[in-house]
Write a structure and sequence with these properties.
This protein has 352 residues and is α/β, with parallel strands linked by helices. It contains 12 helices and 13 strands.
Length: 352
């Protein structure tokens, strides 16, 4: 298959390039840049290594969109920023399957998009047809989709444990609090003062808490789609590590704590029994080092009694933000869409 990567020089694009270089179903890889056309790939990414299978252009350089269009790719991965991606992808929509890793097609509500991103959402009709590519929970829709909107990293980490419990009525209308810790690579590759080593090393902080973070409406949209009308509080934190997200999710639940624990285990076990990239750890709390370098999401939980017939459910979820939170999930969506095994070209095991 002939595959195009837009934004091949960013963190997400670089991970896509590595995964697709080793993907057994990809025969030709077209790296595209909107800002560095003609530059040798090695000038922006020395770590890519040798092209042993001859997938890259013969000149091994970044190509323009027009060159990619002439190549007629079967699928296009867009790792461009929100507000740019949809417009840059426009010529591909009628000819290729598009997997968009930006936020341009994630939100169905126009006002929610406007509040989160400060601009009007692009292409209303096309946005309405986009499938939200939360892989394990939207497989049937992904199989038929021509435009797949790959979820954000924070929502992926939080929604994978929450949504099966919503569908099983373990979580009903409630207050859900999500505390997430993220590595610095989640901020992207562009130069920012807040991403400098001297700012992040030996330093942790919360930022954009509550409803002000851009991923908040994305999580609300999908939780409501699961039938829950809830108060959702989201507090993201930056911590001094390169990769990974750790989420602690707190939900008060009516019922005795042992009964709730059994229902959680049954619901998650049923939802993810045959899912290669979901690892349920039970009452063992997972850690980011378990999953960094893999496309897995590890999920654990505990339940404590608060008295008066109410229990507090704690869910713990970890992912690699550049893999399961971005490029890895995009390729998992790609595999489903084209009928390949879901683990085709994707790592199951974390780094040692």
């Amino acid at each position: 298959m002939r595959i195009c990567v837009l934004g091949a020089s960013g963190y997400t694009g670089a991970v896509l390039m590595r995964l697709l270089m080793d993907h057994p179903k990809v025969t030709e890889l077209i790296p595209v840049s909107s800002t560095a056309v003609g530059r040798p790939i090695d000038e922006v990414d020395w770590g890519l290594g040798a092209d042993t299978q001859g997938k890259l252009p013969s000149e091994r350089s970044l190509l323009s969109r027009d060159q990619a269009l002439r190549a007629k790719p079967d699928a296009v991965f867009s790792a461009l920023p929100h507000g740019v991606s949809a417009q840059f992808c426009k010529p591909f929509f009628s000819n290729s399957i598009v997997l968009d890793l930006s936020a341009d097609f994630r939100l169905k509500n126009e006002e929610a998009h406007r509040r989160a991103y400060g601009t009007a959402p692009p292409m209303r009709k096309l946005r309405e047809t986009a499938v939200y590519g939360l892989t394990e929970l939207r497989e049937n829709d992904i199989r038929e989709a021509n435009l797949i909107s790959v979820p954000g990293c924070y929502p992926t980490c939080a929604l994978l444990p929450i949504l099966p419990l919503a569908h099983a009525s373990v979580i009903a209308s409630a207050t859900i609090t999500i505390n997430s810790l993220s590595g610095i690579s989640g901020a992207g590759r562009s130069e920012k003062k807040d991403s400098m080593f001297v700012e992040r090393s030996e330093n942790a902080l919360a930022y954009n808490p509550g409803i002000s973070h851009r991923h908040h409406p994305e999580m609300v949209q999908e939780i409501r789609r699961a039938g829950i009308s809830c108060n959702l509080f989201f507090i993201p934190h930056l911590v001094p590590m390169r990769r990974g997200i750790f989420s602690t999710i707190s939900v008060p639940v009516n019922g005795e704590h042992r009964e709730i624990a059994m229902r959680v285990e049954e619901a998650l076990g049923r939802a993810y029994a045959d899912k290669l990239f979901i690892n349920l750890t039970g009452n063992r709390i997972p850690s980011t080092r378990d999953v960094v370098g893999s496309n897995r999401c590890d999920i654990g939980w505990t339940v404590e009694s608060t008295g008066n017939g109410v229990s507090m459910l704690f869910l713990f979820s970890v992912i690699d933000n550049l893999l399961k939170g971005a490029s890895g999930q995009a390729i998992q969506d790609f595999n489903i869409r084209f009928g390949f095994p879901q683990d085709c070209g994707l790592p199951l095991r974390g780094e040692v």
